[in-house]
Design brief:
mainly alpha
C-alpha cells in the first residue's frame, strides 16, 4: 500500500514539474510567434546571438543534453555532443521552421524520458569534463535545472522580441 502511494506521488511530482517546464517551453515558442525568418536571425544584443540560435541552443544544449545524455545515458547522443558554442550557430540554409520543429520534437522526447522515471531516478551519465563532480543527482534535479534555464532564456527572448518589434509576452499595467 505504501509503495503504491509513493509511486502515485512520484508520478504526480514528475507531472507537476513537466507542466512547469512545458509552460516555459510554450513561452519560448510563443514570444517568437509571428516573427519572420529574417527577424528570427537578427541579433539585437551586443553579444550577437539571435532568437533562432537561442532556440537551437535550447534544443541541443538543454533538452537533448540534459535528458537524452545525462538522464538517459544515450551513448550516441553523448558521442555527438558539441564541444563549444556550435549549437548557437544556425546555418543560413536551415529553415527557421526546422529549428522550431526540432525544439518541439526534443521536448517531446525529454517528456517521454521524464515520464518513464521517478523524481529520485539517478542520472545515467555526468559530464565531469564540463562540470567537475556532479552537482545534480536525480531526474528531479535535472527537471528543476531545465525549468530554470528555459525560463532564463525565455526572458532573454522577451527582451530580444521587444527590441525587434516592441511585442511583449507579459504586460502588467
Amino acid at each position: 500500500m505504501t509503495d503504491s502511494n509513493s509511486e502515485t506521488s512520484a508520478h504526480g511530482e514528475i507531472r507537476a514539474l513537466l507542466k512547469a517546464l512545458d509552460a516555459q517551453r510554450r513561452h519560448v515558442l510563443g514570444i517568437l510567434d509571428g516573427l519572420d525568418a529574417q527577424a528570427l536571425r537578427r541579433p539585437v544584443l551586443p553579444s550577437g546571438w539571435h532568437c533562432l540560435g537561442l532556440v537551437q541552443h535550447l534544443t541541443l544544449d538543454v533538452e537533448r543534453f540534459w535528458f537524452r545524455a545525462v538522464v538517459a545515458g544515450d551513448e550516441d547522443v553523448i558521442r555527438s555532443l558539441p564541444s563549444g558554442d556550435e549549437a548557437w550557430i544556425v546555418p543560413p540554409l536551415v529553415p527557421a521552421a526546422d529549428v522550431l520543429d526540432a525544439y518541439r520534437r526534443e521536448a517531446e522526447i525529454a517528456n517521454d524520458i521524464s515520464a518513464a522515471g521517478a523524481p529520485e531516478t539517478a542520472l545515467a551519465w555526468w559530464p565531469r569534463d564540463l562540470f567537475g563532480e556532479p552537482h545534480l543527482h536525480t531526474l528531479r534535479d535535472v527537471l528543476l535545472h531545465v525549468i530554470t534555464e528555459t525560463a532564463w532564456h525565455a526572458g532573454h527572448l522577451d527582451a530580444a522580441r521587444e527590441l525587434i518589434d516592441g511585442r511583449r509576452w507579459l504586460v502588467l499595467t
